[in-house]
Write a structure and sequence with these properties.
about 425 residues, about 20% helix, alpha/beta
């Protein structure tokens, strides 16, 4: 079978893949292929018909499909090649630094592809009920929030009339509002943690504005019904996240929506042998968003779950630029030795992206994104270079549901030519 070669192949045609492709093209790369397993470009945005997208990127409020179309138009204006309904089966390192991809589609059949560089933008998937170990039968009426969103917004099907939502992730919050607007009654949103996993604005606009109660430190302990959900029982949980006897509450309902977290789609990444983060379930990357496998980059929700698509686009554009430069500067060959300084963190920070920095590779500035593990108030985020405080950012409130960021400038890093240690800490703001 004939093998087709490209300089750059991008796996995933959602907002991350589209942004990466456009940025790589604008950086001068012309041999680009985008592979998308769905029948249309745009990814999850196609079912997100609510507005609120694009405020950072386009300085206007767009729906998900409108936001996606902006990037689809950019892709087509540049005549960047893409294949739809194309499922990538394997990704391996080949000879001379090339990456070997096997994909299949109804139109093209089995495809063998090679690339000098690959950008992983496969997005993420929802955690399922099976991962939660909720006691009970397996009746109809249990949906992930994303599945319910697709059913309502694309298929035109209302999953149920009386709804309980488990988890307060952004999709679950948005579906609380959407189901209400479609005539369903959302009885309660129960959240296992003592804080919401969604954006504050979504709590206000999707729950508070519609009088939907949010019960923190609560979970579903039983699902009733054999053929169809007839009710659920929720209970309060203690600090150990275990239900507290005597706190059970029963709700008569026909539908349970699960909004209990997202998992990056990283089967290909793991199969490639890239180093992975136990916290994000995404690959470990450097300042160029390059994984531990040279020439393989990652961006968007496959790297770590974002709260705003604007940040996905910004991050992915950086990956596109870095991939194009990798191809131009190295031609797929092994890189020269570079300085690699791990980013250390503490004070409640769960992870950082990137995980390490070569100061000499930073042009103009570098954004470091991170999340904290608990709700914090009156804090400051401090950056230490070789033990010296060089940057402080005060934060009135920080929460796990909202991503934080810091900016390290090229000038700041060059002021420390012998830099050997980077540390980021959350500290009390006296």
């Amino acid at each position: 079978m004939e093998r087709t070669e490209y300089n750059l192949i991008i796996i995933g045609g959602g907002p991350a893949g589209l942004s990466a492709a456009v940025a790589a093209y604008d950086e001068g790369e012309r041999s680009i292929l985008v592979l998308e397993r769905d029948t249309r470009l745009g990814g999850i945005l196609n079912q997100c018909i609510h507005n609120g997208f694009g405020l950072h990127t386009f300085q206007e409020e767009l729906t998900g499909p409108e936001y996606a179309q902006r990037y689809i138009d950019k892709l087509e204006e540049r005549n960047i090649e893409y294949k739809l309904d194309a499922m990538v089966m394997s990704l391996e390192s080949g000879k001379d630094g090339m990456k070997e991809i096997m994909a299949v589609s109804e139109k093209d059949g089995l495809m063998l592809l090679s690339a000098r560089a690959v950008i992983l933008t496969m997005g993420c998937r929802e955690r399922s009920r099976g991962a939660l170990n909720i006691p009970g039968f397996r009746p109809a009426g249990v949906f992930s929030a994303g599945t319910a969103q697709r059913l309502v917004n694309i298929e035109g099907y209302l999953p149920g009339r009386r709804v309980v939502i488990l988890g307060s992730g952004d999709i679950g919050l948005i579906m609380a509002r959407r189901m209400t607007l479609e005539g369903a009654k959302v009885l309660v949103c129960a959240e296992l943690m003592p804080y919401s996993g969604g954006l504050k604005r979504n709590i206000v606009q999707c729950l508070d504005d519609f009088g939907i109660p949010l019960k923190l430190s609560h979970t579903v302990v039983r699902i009733e019904g054999k053929e169809r959900v007839e009710g659920v029982v929720i209970a309060e949980v203690g600090p150990d996240r275990k239900p507290i006897p005597g706190t059970e509450e029963h709700y008569d309902c026909d539908t349970l929506l699960l909004s209990v977290g997202l998992l990056p789609e990283n089967e290909l990444t793991i199969g490639l042998g890239a180093d992975m983060s136990r916290v994000t379930n995404g690959p470990v990357v450097n300042e160029s968003l390059e994984t531990s496998v040279p020439g393989v980059f990652a961006a968007g929700n496959v790297l770590h779950v974002h709260d705003l698509v604007d940040y996905v686009s910004e991050e992915s554009a950086h990956a596109g630029v870095c991939a194009a430069r990798y191809i131009r500067d190295y031609g797929g060959e092994a890189k020269e030795e570079v300085k690699r300084i791990p980013i250390e963190f503490g004070g409640g920070i769960r992870y950082t992206v990137p995980c390490s920095i070569d100061p000499g590779k930073v042009e103009k500035y570098l954004k470091i994104r991170f999340r904290v593990g608990d709700v914090m108030s009156s804090r400051k985020v401090v950056v230490y270079l070789d033990g010296k405080s060089v940057l402080t950012k005060k934060r009135r409130v920080m929460a796990p549901g909202e991503m934080e960021e810091l900016v390290l400038t090229e000038k700041l890093l060059k002021a420390h030519p012998d830099l050997s240690r980077i540390e980021i800490k959350v500290e009390e703001d006296a």
